[in-house]
Each structure stands twice: as C-alpha cells, then as structure tokens.
Design a protein that fits this description.
seven-stranded mixed sheet; 58% helix; six-stranded mixed sheet; cell membrane; 9% strand; transmembrane helix; alpha/beta; 23 strands; 1280 residues
C-alpha cells in the first residue's frame, strides 16, 4: 500500500477491508453486552439499597397512620442504612469489554521498560574502556554492537506495544460511537430536548476521540513509576546519596507540573463549554442562514459568534501561558537536576571526583527519567478528564424526561375508519399523534395499537438519498406499486421536472424540493410501506388546495387507496371534514367534542359555530354536466370586490426543483426509462492531494517577522544547551588532570548560568510562539466566519451543512489546539536533532562521513511515509463527515425511523460509515509502526557509529568527549522519531488551514452597503414595485426560472400569488430580496434600482414571513429583535397583534422565554406566529407572505389576515397562498398568467365561465370580479 501511495495519491478503493474483529458488528455488541450487565447490576443494587429503608417494622401497638412519630433512634437507623444506589459505570463496561486485549500490549511495555536501562550500563563500560589504554579492541567493538542490538530490540518491542494500544483505541471509538448512535435512536423526545444535536455530535466526535487518545498512554500509569524507581536505583549505585539532591528537585517540580495540569484541565473544560456554545450557534445559523439573509440579521449573529470566540481565545491564551511554563520546567529539568546532583556530589566530600563515566551515565539516566516524570501528571489528568467527562456521555446513555401536553384522553378508533383531529394552534394535536407513536412520556393510562404503523410528520423528514430511496425507505422495489403511489400522491408531474427523475439525489433536509413536494414524498413513503394504521400529522397544509383535494380523494378519503385502513388525520382543512367518519375537536390538550360531521353540527357546540363561520364552500360536483358549481357563504361574497392574482403555470416547475438540473431533461414515456446522467446536487467533498502549499499561508497569518524571530529564539536555546554539555565534558576532564578542587565553584557557577539562560530562552520562545499561533487562529476564524455570512444562498443549497460545520468545529479546533503544540514539538525536535549532529561531529569529526547517507535514507523514508500517511489522514477526515451528518439526520428523524421500525437498518448504515472511516484509520496506525521501526533503526545506526568511532579513535579522544557524543546519540533516536511524526502531523494538521482557507475564499454576494448608492432613510415611501423585462435563473448554466417578467404594482396594493405547488411562486419573492440575482432586466422599488444598492439597505426595508418558520435558540425577545432596536412595549404590542400575548404572558419567563434549538418547544403554528410578530415589529413598506399561514387553523389564520389588513393597510403586500380565503379580499383587478413563466396580463371577466380544456384565454373587459385559476389541466372560474 505504501508503494502504491508513494506513486499515486491513495484513494478509498485502494484501502484494505477492515479485520472482522475490528468491525462494528463484533465490537459494538461486545460493549453493549457489558453495559447491559452493568445496568442490571446497578438496578439490583438500587433495589437492595432501597430495601434498607423499610427494614425496621413498627413496634406492635404503635399507630401506623401518616404522621405517627417515629422514635428518634429509628430515624437514625434509617438514615445510616440508606446507601446511595450505585450508578452504572460506563468506564467499567469499557474495561471489561476491551481490557484483556489491551493487557497483551502492557506485557510488551514491561519488557521494553526493562531493556531501556541496559544502554546506560553499556555506556559506562564504553567510557571505562576508552580510559584503559591496554583493553582489547574487540571488547570495544562488542560493546558498540551490543548497544546497537539492545536499542534495536527495544524498538521492536515498543512498536508491538503501540500496535496493541492503538487497535484497542480504535475499537473503543467504534464501540462508543455505535453505542451513542443506538441510544440516540431510542432516546425520548423530552430527553432530546435536554441536549441538542450539536452536543451529541460533539460527544461522538470529541469525547470518543479522547478515549481513543488515552489508550495509547494508559500504560504510563504503572510504567512511569516503574521507570522512575529503576532509574533512581541505578543513579544511587553511581553517585550514592547525592542523588537525593536531584530527587528533591524532581519532587519539587512535581507539584508545579501537577498544578499546571490541574489549571490546564480547568481551562480545557471552560473552553469546551465555549466551543460547544459556538458550534451550537453556528449550527443554528447555518440551518437558518436563509432567514438571516432575508431579515438582514447577519451582523447581529456575527457579533454573537465573535463574542463567544473572544472568550474562547482568552482561555486559550491563559492555557498558552501555562504551557510555556511547563515547557520551561520540562526542558530545563535535566539540567537543574544534574546541576544539583553534581554540585552536591562534588562539595559533600573532597574524595568525590566527577569523572566522565559518572557524569554521562547519570546524564543518560536523567534523560530516561525525564519522560515518565513529565508524562505521569498528563496521563493522570487525561484519565480524570475521561473518567469524569463533562456530564455528557453517561447522560446520553441514561437520558431522562417530563412535561404534560395531553390530558385525560379517551379515544377508540374503530379498525378501518378515518378520524380527523382538529383544533387551534398548540392545542396538542401533534402531541396526540406523538403519544400514539409512544414518543411522549406516559404519566398514566395506556395505549394499544393493533398492527403496524406508518407515520407522516408535520414537517416532512427527508434523507440525503435519491427520491426513490426516500419513498421505498428500505422496502423492495415493486414497479407497479411504486408507480401507483407516485400517481396517488400527485408526484408524477414533479418527476418530469427533476433532472434525474426519481433517481435525483435529494439534498440534506430535502433542500432541493419545495415544501409541498417534501410533504408528498413523505406521504408516498407511508403509502408504499403498507401498514395497518396511518398517523397523518397535517400532511395537507404544505400543498395547495388543488393538490390537497387530489390527495384527499386518491389517498386519504373514503374513496382513496387507504380505504379500509385505520387513519388518524390531523388537519386544518375544513372542506374535507364532511367526508370523514369521525371528528375529534381538541382544546388545550383535552377532547372537547367528538362525533361525525352531522352529529357535531347538530350538537351546536363550539365546533358548529366555527364551521358556520369558516365553511367557505360546500362543493357539489355535478357529474352530468361535468361542471363545478361553487356556493359561497355570504361573508365572502362581500369581500369579492376586486381581485388581483398572480398565477403561475404549474407544469413549469418550481424553480427550486430545477435549481439542480444542468438542462431540462424530458422523461421518456416508456416505463423502463433510461435515466439521464444525474448531476449530483451535493458534490463529493474534495480532498486536496499533493504537498500543502499552506505553510506560507500560516506563516503569513502568524506574521512573517514573528516567524523568523521564533526560529532565532529556538536556535539560541539549543546553543545554550550544547554549551552547558560541552562545559560538563570539560569539567569531567579535570579529573584526569587532577585539578578538581581549584575550580569547582567556577565550574558549577558557569554550568548553572548556562542552564538558567536556556530555561529563560525556552520560556520566551514558547511564549512568542503561542501568541503567534493564537493571532493566526483569530485571523483564520474571522476570515472564515466573515466569508460564510457573505456567501450567496446557492452555496448553502448545494453544500451539506455538516461540511461547513466541520470547518468550524474540527478544523478550527486543530488550528486552535493541535497545530500550536505540533509546531512547538516540531521546532523543539528539529533543533535538538540538529544539535545532536553538531555535537557528535565536533567530538568525532569522522562521523560527518556517515551523516550524508543516513540523512538521505532518513529523508527518503520520511517522504515515502508522509506521501501515504497524508492521504490516509485526508481520507480519514473525509470519511468522518458522513458519520456525523448521518447521525444528525437520524436524530432529527428518529420518530419516523421508529414508527416504520427501521431501527436496525439505520444502525447498520451508521456502522458501515464508521467502518469505512476506520478502514482508512487502521492503515494509518500500521504506517506509523512501519515508520517508527525504520526511523529508530537509523537512530540506532547513529548510536552504533558514534560508539564505533569512539572505539576507533580512543587514543585521541578524552573520556569526556566520548561520553558527550554517545549520550547525545542515545537521545537522538527519540528526537528523530518525533521529528518525522511531527513533520507528518504538521502536514496533516496544516490541512485544516487549507480547508479553512478554501471556505474563506468562496465567492461572495454583493456588498451589504454601497456608500455612494445609499437610499434615503425613508425609502421606500410609497412601496411601488416594478419588474421590467425581468429574468432570473438559480445558478450559472441552468434554465431561466422567470422569463422577461414585466409587472407594475402601485404602492399600498395587496397582491395575491397563486398556483400549483412548485410553480415558482416563492422564486419571485426571492428576487425582490436579491437572494437570486437577475439574469436580465431589473426590479425597481419607488424608482430605485434594487440591483445598485447594498443588500442590507434593501433587505432591511422589506419584510418576509417565510414558508418555514425558523427560530434560533435564545430568548423569545432575541428572536423577535436581535439588535434590540425596540422597547418592551413595542414587542408586547407586536405579540398582541400576532395573538401570542396570551401564550407568552402565561409563561413564567415572559419575553425571556427560552426557545430551544430550532424552536422545538413551540408548535409549528406558534413559530409561524412568532415570525408574524417579527414582521409587525419591523413594519416595513413592503411585506411578503410566503404561505405564512399554512400550518395554522382557519380561525387563527383569519385573525392574522385581519391583523395584516389593519396593520399593513398602507403597505404593499404580496401573498403566496394555497387557501383562497386568505387572498379573497385583495385589491385590484388583473390576472397574471404565466406560461413557461412569462407573465401575461388579463382583465377579469364578469360571469363565471368554465373551461374544461386548456386553451387560449380570452381577454375580457373588467366586470364584477371573480378569480381564475390557470392549471395545466383545466380552467375553472370560481365566482358569483
């Protein structure tokens, strides 16, 4: 694989398949079995602990009524016996599942620890060999080769240990992700509200990763103390009690390191909270980006993100200060300890002579000590961190709920009947359906459903898959049944317009379908999955009245496909009520009345009253004449003065649908269609290949001068370290010349001075480096954020949100935390390897001969490794995104998945995605092992040559120099190994900069404000809108959506826009906001060309109530007025006019009512009302309602319409509506009819004509007033 990767960049198909024993199907059940046992044990423990409470029976004759006083002793007994019940420990189950395999790795570690101490002993023999002039040369050579072999053996054993650890880590991650995924599918809705999708995804990505990283160092918990004890033993042998001085310094350094670790841990927790908050906010911003653009709210939210980011960077800065301290402690550690020990050793006793053997053997032992001493506090702190995770993970596995929505309901639906559930917004209709699905917490009573269930939620849940897969939902494909489902749900005409027919890929959350299409796909899914009971939560609200009638007749109604099945239909549409078997009226979570249509009318209750007011038409179909006669109730006749409707032809589909096709593909009529090559909506995430040219970008972000200064500081600190060691080697030579006593104080003094200098330099350099890194992190994040707020809407329609979130979470995390430490380690190891070479060459110049070939091999191995490892890293990060996007998709659709019983299939999909990801991770581990063995081999060669040349030149060398060069050589293995590691880490981490850069440079929309074109503050004063020869398309290379549209609307007019679902009604409104830029022609508002002014100047002067109500988590007040422009009085006024004041004033928090993520704690109708309140607050000259009242019952709709009539009386209002009564009383008398989206203008005719066939439309002079609907199939006039 490495050779393949070296020749060409690796691709997913080149990877090996995963070992069966590492795959999800083996690993996850193992953990879940242990976890179940753990829970059972905890529960049985709990039962025992509660039994103790009642152990003592009341003595005979004592009154046992409530409040009978217990004797004080008895109370004490009870208290003392009450044990706290044991909580199931997740950690314990992990250990049971994966411990045994891990122990094999531990055994290897033990061996390696013991072998580590052989080399210092050999070094001491070698130095004494150079002293004895008459020792046989073969002994020297033997020693040199022995050193080489022990080092080599150590290498092999160490990497065996690592292999075991990493594989355990990998299995841990697989198991944890699998467990969380399975849990998230069965977690209750109430529990879902306690933790957002963002938090659970974070748990999956970050915390699972933590467990994985920990396993590699876990053995240090016992191995570090062992190494410390052994090292101290050998030091005592060497230097006697003077060692205690060194030990004292070490012991003093431990609390310092521990304190630093504790503080760092605290900062990490704090930073995690900010990061969680920032990702959560970003997630919402990206989900609601369209709304932010329409309201011109980007700045307010940008400020919010930057505020959190600033706090995050402040914590990072504190962490960096601590980091610099600990780096200093760790670097100058060897020197300080050595200094103390040697100084004490020489001064305690005149006879103690510090010779080369003692000094350098001790030095190499101190070097061995350095690693465990530094690692121990780190490992302990990360064990603590994983052991008591931010109370995320066990909660997720234990989740718990409460809140009452539906009260004392008694309901029996006979098999095969159709029950309609009606009621106001927020009265618990959807909650009833959720209760039937078992999604609500049941406080009392019981529910039983006979047979299988199919469920259509109020907000359709669409997967990122093909349209066909969305409908089949895992069932086998049956052409005939499938076609009839499409037919019944009126989806056939839509397929003709989609670029790849039913094999078109649907984006995340169904982004490239219109609201009505999503709802119909959701319905078709229910229809195809034949069930016994159908729960339909308001499936007709998102489609227009025409399609609603079609669906009711062909699917839901008494004549529909579902006749004979049990159907519960939540609806706001009154026209269908006469045809249902039973109607249930809900008020505030209770059933107020129930019965058939006729019965309820006769009861003359609230419902009958409601019907009389709102029943718009009782439709009588006269089969004989084939005409449709409509009777209107009196209330409406008066309002039919004059009407103005924009009507779009339906077969010319909604622009959104064709947003995705490169050219319009006509579907061939025959059943076995040859599907055109589908242009994928969501392009695969690109992985850059080849060398990263990003280093320069990063250096620029840090600051070029600062970068040079940092390198200079590192050079100085290495020089100080070399100086100190050369001084030591001079000092040991004093022993040979018997001039020890004279200059002890001078020797010690200079040695100390050099040590202190080095420490200070280390601290300063780490400091500067950290500052540079944080500066770069700030700049890169700001550029990314700024660009994303300026990116046009089309980018978000074609890019999965997960991909953008990944940039903000994973990649920014790398730039914040991983990259700085990698750079620090890289510079450290680079300069230490360099200084090693300099020292060895200085002491044995002949060594220079070997440097060239060794360097060549080293560079080759490193290039060879990095080429493969970089691609593996990239593949790993690309296969990681789908795990999380699939996961968040699952969490949002969990109720649908459960209703259809597709639990196992989704678990399988998730497992496959995790396995795919581990497939590119595993070769990465193996590659690291491969590299480690090769590089350490080179290091071992350096030891061999340094020793050999010392043996060869022993007559010319003094023992001090031999000790110096060989002890340095023993150190080099580690530096070299780390250096390659760091180089490759640096290359793979710098990819984050590249990815962030890539998204900081995407194309941006027009400027928010154009200084010299600013409209006057009171613009638009009249609200006159003109389209002149206007054309628009969704993206480059697509067909026009509107062609040469010319239309003029006088200020203050109310315009109705109707047409079949997907006829491009919303597209027209998007043009006013310039979410779509003109392809030709222009729009002017009050004579100002909107294409010339800034986007914020334009958007802040228009108001839209969008089709899908979007709320952000935060207070209700923030949702209404993020810039805090208005006072509380105005906000309450807006709530009153939008009929929310009763609901809000009943909440204890009033305006500070917390909205959960996406406004989940409000019903869809209430969310729509919040959007209306926003519009009332802004009160601009031009208002656009995009099917704003689809999710609202007729009564509330009526109230809203009257609010709009009174409050926006002098404003220009464009309304897109499915319900005719919504637009019955709109002004003006022209019909706009679009054919192939050209709009032509017609007057209205006086009498009601009915055409059955599409034909040319006569231009009739304006008469009394009626509406005409153009549809591809028929004309029908509804009128007086």
């Amino acid at each position: 694989m490495a050779i393949k990767g070296y020749k060409n960049p690796l691709e997913a198909k080149d990877l090996w398949s995963l070992n069966k024993r590492d795959s999800s199907e083996e690993v996850v059940p193992k953990l879940l079995r242990e976890w179940d046992l753990e829970q059972i044990k905890a529960h049985s423990g709990k039962d025992r602990s509660t039994q103790a409470l009642y152990s003592k029976p009341p003595p005979a004759g004592e009154s046992n009524h409530v409040g009978g006083e217990n004797s004080p002793e008895e109370v004490e007994v009870l208290l003392s016996k009450k044990r706290t019940p044991k909580k199931p420990s997740f950690l314990r189950s992990l250990i049971k599942a994966f411990g045994p395999y891990f122990l094999i790795g531990s055994a290897f570690k033990l061996l390696q620890d013991l072998i580590t101490f052989v080399n210092p002993q050999l070094l001491s023999l070698l130095i004494s060999f150079t002293k004895q002039k008459e020792a046989p040369t073969w002994w020297g050579y033997a020693l040199a080769f022995l050193m080489f072999f022990t080092a080599f053996l150590q290498t092999l054993i160490l990497h065996q240990h690592f292999q075991y650890c990493f594989v355990t880590g990998m299995r841990l991650r697989t198991a944890i992700i699998g467990a969380i995924y399975r849990k998230s599918l069965i977690i209750t809705n109430a529990a879902k509200r306690t933790s957002t999708v963002g938090e659970i995804v974070n748990l999956m990505s970050v915390d699972a990763q933590r467990f994985m990283d920990l396993t590699t160092f876990l053995n240090m918990l016992w191995s570090a103390p062992l190494q410390i004890i052994l090292a101290l033993y050998f030091l005592w042998q060497n230097l006697g009690p003077s060692v205690l001085a060194g030990v004292a310094v070490m012991i003093l350094l431990i609390p310092l390191n521990a304190a630093i670790a504790v503080r760092t841990r605290a900062y990490q927790v704090e930073q995690m909270q900010y990061k969680d908050a920032r990702i959560k906010l970003m997630n919402e911003i990206l989900n609601g980006i369209k709304v932010l653009k329409l309201y011109a709210w980007e700045n307010s939210f940008k400020e919010k993100v930057l505020e959190i980011r600033q706090k995050e960077l402040n914590v990072l800065r504190k962490t960096a200060y601590l980091g610099a301290l600990s780096t200093m402690a760790w670097t100058s550690y060897t020197l300080t300890v050595a200094l103390m020990t040697f100084a004490v050793y020489v001064t305690v006793d005149k006879n103690n002579i510090l010779d080369a053997e003692k000094a350098f053997v001790s030095l190499s032992l101190f070097n061995i000590l350095r690693f465990p001493l530094n690692m121990l506090p780190q490992v302990i702190s990360s064990v603590v961190q994983v052991g008591s995770p931010p109370p995320h993970s066990e909660c997720t596995l234990l989740m718990c709920p409460v809140c009452v929505f539906v009260r004392s309901i008694n309901l029996m639906v006979p098999q095969g009947s159709l029950l309609a559930v009606v009621g106001h917004v927020g009265c618990g209709k959807s909650s009833l359906v959720s209760a039937l699905l078992g999604e609500m917490e049941k406080l009392e009573g019981q529910i039983s459903i006979r047979g299988s269930v199919a469920y259509v939620p109020q907000q359709a849940w669409i997967q990122n898959a093909t349209l066909r897969d969305n409908i089949l939902f895992g069932k086998a494909y049956n052409e005939q049944k499938y076609r009839s489902c499409l037919e019944a749900c009126a989806l056939t005409p839509d397929l003709e317009v989609l670029p790849g027919g039913d094999l078109t890929e649907i984006g995340e959350k169904g982004i490239n379908l219109s609201g009505g299409q999503r709802q119909r796909v959701s319905l078709a899914r229910a229809l195809y999955n034949e069930a016994d009971v159908y729960l339909l939560d308001d499936p007709l609200s998102a489609v227009d009245s025409h399609v609603a009638k079609h669906i009711f007749d062909h699917v839901i109604g008494p004549e529909g496909v579902l006749q004979g099945k049990t159907r519960i239909l939540v609806t706001h549409g009154i026209s269908f009520l006469p045809q249902v078997d039973n109607i249930m009226v809900m008020v505030e979570g209770r059933v107020s009345e129930m019965g058939s249509y006729q019965e309820l009318l006769q009861q003359n209750g609230a419902f009958a009253e409601f019907l009389r007011n709102y029943s718009l038409e009782d439709i009588i179909e006269d089969e004989a004449t084939g005409t449709t006669i409509c009777y209107y109730s009196r209330g409406i006749q008066n309002s039919l003065r004059s009407l103005d409707l924009l009507i779009f032809s339906s077969t010319w589909s909604k622009s959104v649908r064709r947003r995705l096709c490169s050219e319009r593909k006509h579907a061939e009529p025959d059943a076995e269609k040859k599907l055109p090559k589908v242009e994928k909506l969501i392009q695969a995430e690109t992985t850059e290949t080849g060398r990263s040219k990003v280093f320069w970008e990063y250096a620029k972000a840090v600051g070029p001068l600062l970068t040079l200064f940092i390198c200079f500081l590192y050079g100085c600190q290495s020089a100080a370290a070399i100086g100190a060691n050369i001084w030591l080697s001079q000092w040991t030579n004093d022993a040979a010349q018997n001039m020890t006593q004279e200059n002890v104080s001078m020797r010690v003094g200079v040695y100390a001075a050099l040590g202190i200098t080095q420490g200070i330099l280390v601290m300063v350099s780490s400091f500067t480096l950290a500052m540079g890194n944080i500066g770069a992190a700030r700049k890169l994040h700001y550029a990314l954020l700024d660009n994303k707020f300026h990116t046009p809407q089309s980018f978000f329609d074609t890019t999965p949100i997960g991909r953008v979130i990944n940039r903000f979470s994973k990649d920014i995390y790398v730039i914040d935390e991983a990259l700085p430490s990698t750079v620090l380690m890289f510079l450290g190891t680079f300069f230490s390897s360099l200084s090693t070479m300099i020292v060895i060459v200085a002491s044995t110049p002949i060594f220079a001969v070997v440097i060239a070939p060794l360097t060549f091999i080293y560079v080759f191995v490193q290039r060879f490794y990095v080429a493969t490892s970089r691609q593996l890293k990239r593949l790993e990060s690309v296969t990681r995104s789908p795990i999380y996007s699939h996961f968040s998709e699952t969490v949002t659709g969990s109720s649908v998945i459960r209703a259809y019983g597709r639990h196992d299939a989704f678990v399988l999909m998730s497992d496959m995605k995790v396995d795919d990801n581990q497939k590119s991770y595993y070769p990465g581990i193996v590659a690291n092992r491969w590299l480690g063995v090769r590089i350490e081999f080179i290091g071992n060669c350096i030891v061999l040559f340094a020793a050999l040349f010392a043996v060869i030149g022993k007559d010319k060398l003094n023992p001090g120099l031999v000790g110096l060069s060989v002890s340095y050589a023993l150190l080099v293995t580690m530096s070299l190994n780390w250096m390659v590691r760091m180089t490759s880490d640096l290359e793979s981490n710098i990819v984050a900069v590249e990815r962030v850069k890539e998204y900081s440079e995407t194309k941006i929309e027009a400027p928010w404000e154009v200084e010299d074109k600013k409209p006057s503050p009171d613009w638009p004063s009249q609200g006159k809108v003109e389209f002149l020869d206007y054309s628009v398309r969704y993206r480059e290379g697509l067909d026009l959506v509107l062609k040469n549209l010319t239309l003029s609307v006088v200020g203050g007019e109310k315009i109705g826009i109707v047409g079949r679902t997907g006829a491009g009604k919303s597209s027209m409104t998007l043009c006013l906001f310039r979410l779509l830029e003109a392809a030709g022609g222009e729009i002017t508002i009050d004579g100002v060309k909107i294409s010339e002014i800034g986007l914020h100047d334009l958007r802040s002067k228009l108001t839209i109530i969008p089709q899908e109500p979007v709320l952000f988590s935060g207070s209700l007040r923030m949702n209404l007025d993020p810039f805090e422009k208005y006072n509380d009085g105005e906000v309450w006024k807006a709530l009153e006019l939008s009929h929310l004041n009763k609901f809000v004033s009943n909440q204890p928090a009033k305006l500070e009512l917390e909205c959960s993520e996406g406004g989940e704690n409000l019903s869809v109708g209430q969310r729509q009302l919040v959007c209306l309140a926003r519009a009332l607050l802004r009160k601009t000259r031009i208002l656009i309602l995009d099917e704003a009242t689809a999710a609202i019952d007729l009564e509330t709709d009526d109230l809203i319409q009257s609010t709009i009539r009174t409050q926006f009386e002098d404003c220009t209002v464009f309304t897109i509506a499915h319900r005719l009564n919504t637009i019955m009383d709109y002004t003006r008398n022209k019909i706009l009819w679009s054919d192939e989206t050209k709009i032509e203008l017609f007057g209205l005719n006086a009498k009601c004509h009915v055409w059955r066939k599409p034909g040319p439309i006569p231009t009739v002079k304006h008469g009394g007033g009626s509406i005409m609907l153009w549809d591809a199939f028929q004309w029908q006039g509804l009128g007086d």
